[in-house]
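Input record, target 12 of the design panel.
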């Protein structure tokens, strides 16, 4: 794996929007909604609402917070591995689980990443949206936007439309900012039980999810 600082990625300042949503400040000084905010505002929440009613708000919040903590730790371990920074696992069960999950991604897929151009790269499409992608570089010899995802159980591709739209959005932003032509998105998904799956979109599938993203983006601004 080669780290190639091919582009000068910017760190985008995060802020809170008027409705408590995440926004990013563009280099020109105005707020842009995050890709995840746009997707959350335009998704069907019927299943999420029913689940929250079933388990109760307190339990739902606990599960959400634990999942966020686990995901953040796993991302940190992966970033440290790439940058060759030692990380302490310790005896905390969540840290141990996060480390084991990170190792699944490292052992199964890092050999397929030819180059890394950026880690936690800030991307934005001027006037429309912004976000931060986990990895951008070359996967199996093709330029790609890559993201890590944690899950309680492995999902099928029809259950991860938001993830695929997110990748498409980051590809669009990267192409606009840096003159690239990225047509591949990759999701590395791992569960707490260490089940693992890689999702790759390219070709017609990539075009399909890019169109889905553009439709969701239009829906968001029409609201």
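The sequence produced for target 12 reads:
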């Amino acid at each position: 794996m080669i780290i190639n600082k091919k582009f000068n990625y910017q760190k985008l300042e995060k802020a809170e929007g008027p409705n408590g949503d995440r926004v990013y400040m563009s280099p020109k000084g105005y707020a842009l909604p995050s890709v995840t905010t746009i997707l959350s505002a335009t998704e069907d929440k019927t299943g999420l609402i029913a689940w929250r009613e079933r388990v109760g708000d307190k339990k739902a919040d606990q599960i959400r917070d634990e999942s966020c903590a686990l995901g953040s730790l796993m991302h940190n371990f992966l970033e440290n591995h790439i940058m060759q920074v030692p990380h302490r696992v310790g005896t905390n069960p969540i840290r141990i689980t996060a480390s084991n999950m990170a190792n699944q991604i490292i052992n199964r897929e890092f050999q397929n990443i030819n180059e890394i151009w950026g880690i936690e790269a800030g991307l934005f499409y001027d006037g429309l949206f912004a976000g931060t992608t986990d990895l951008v570089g070359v996967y199996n010899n093709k330029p790609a936007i890559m993201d890590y995802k944690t899950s309680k159980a492995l999902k099928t591709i029809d259950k991860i439309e938001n993830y695929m739209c997110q990748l498409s959005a980051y590809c669009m932003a990267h192409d606009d900012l840096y003159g690239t032509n990225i047509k591949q998105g990759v999701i590395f998904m791992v569960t707490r039980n260490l089940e693992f799956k890689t999702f790759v979109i390219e070709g017609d599938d990539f075009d399909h999810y890019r169109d889905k993203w553009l439709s969701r983006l239009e829906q968001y601004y029409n609201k």
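The longest helix spans residues 57-82.
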